[in-house]
Known about the structure:
This protein has 357 residues and is of the alpha/beta class. The protein folds into two domains: 1-113 and 297-357, P-loop containing nucleotide triphosphate hydrolases (Rossmann fold), CATH 3.40.50.300; 121-294, Glutathione S-transferase Yfyf (Class Pi), Chain A, domain 2. Helices cover 42% and strands 23% of the residues. The protein is built from 13 helices and 14 strands. It has helices at 36-48, 105-111, 123-126, 129-143, 147-166, 171-174, 178-202, 205-210, 230-236, 238-244, 265-268, 271-293, 310-323; strands at 2-11, 14-20, 25-29, 67-75, 81-89, 93-97, 114-117, 216-221, 255-260, 263-264, 298-301, 327-331, 345-350, 353-355. The strands form three sheets. A six-stranded mixed sheet has the order 7-11-12-3-13-14, sandwiched between helices. It is globular. The two termini are 26 Å apart.
Amino acid sequence: MQLDTLYVQNFRCIATGDISLSPQVNCIVGDNASGKTTLLEAIYILGRGESFRQSRLSKAIRQQADSFTLRTRLLGDHDSRHRIGAHVTRGSNRFKLDDQTETRRFDLISTLPLQHIDPNVHRLLEQGPKYRRHFLDWGVFHVEHAFFPAWRRYRRALKQRNRALRAHQPKHQVIAWDAELVQQGEIIDACRRQYLEHIKRRLPESTRRLVGDDDLTFVYHPGWRGEQGFGHALANSLDQDIRAGFTQHGPHRADMQVSVASTQARDWVSRGQQKLLTAALLLAQADILHAKRGIRPILLLDDMAAELGHTYRKALASEVIRVGAQSFLTFLNRESIPELLAESRMFHVEQGCVTTP
């Protein structure tokens, strides 16, 4: 899977850009605020239907313009081809996949899987459970077909149960949603556990050596306590849920703990090692997607050299090459590009203008 071209018009600081892309590694060089991250964001929007910078896409419209347009051609496996476009005005967001009359975020995510590794990628280890749930669910969504229907039904039932709790409805109206929550929640939990086993087996050995010879371990917390299952946990917490006004247990509260030598990774390794470890987890997901479905996701690595010394940069570059996916990497200058990537296609961005040296 690869992007053939990328067209950008009136998107942030870029007035117009129409570039041909390498099917392998694309290196984007430019000063801070020059527009190099904007190119990654454009690809991200086409694959996710949202930005990694802010919630309102209209804020990315270039000054003095009324809208922005993004387009790409996607060459998939088995000779498949797709066209993806986005047109955002001050009042509406429109996406189009091929000739579909209506395109949902689900369609974009399914068609253009991509992984984003940004300078703050260590948040997966350092900050709240939502980052780790997002990490798990991206992979599960693309690999386990039972996951998304179960997650959609679970979210619908959870919303209704929470609405009943906030409205102080009688207990029987609250627990009316429990059976659906438990049925779908157990499917979600099983899919996540199975996927985590794939991650454990495929974590790159080079990264294990970089964080030391001690064992790297993962502990999954399903979102409820006790060995008697989700249904029992829901029943036991009903009075607490009524007082709190929301459902306190379930897959929506799940977490994953990553430890090195029995110590949580966020407390054990340096910031640079955290970044490398987290990047390795995301690259392992790319391996799994290719092994299970024959698809290589697009890799977006923003400011790859940040907080990484020469050895770490070389190791990460080696992993990117090994994965074999089309990649887009940004750097402040050419000197920070690892020698392994010297033959990549280069783009220079300056004041919103994209050129090929």
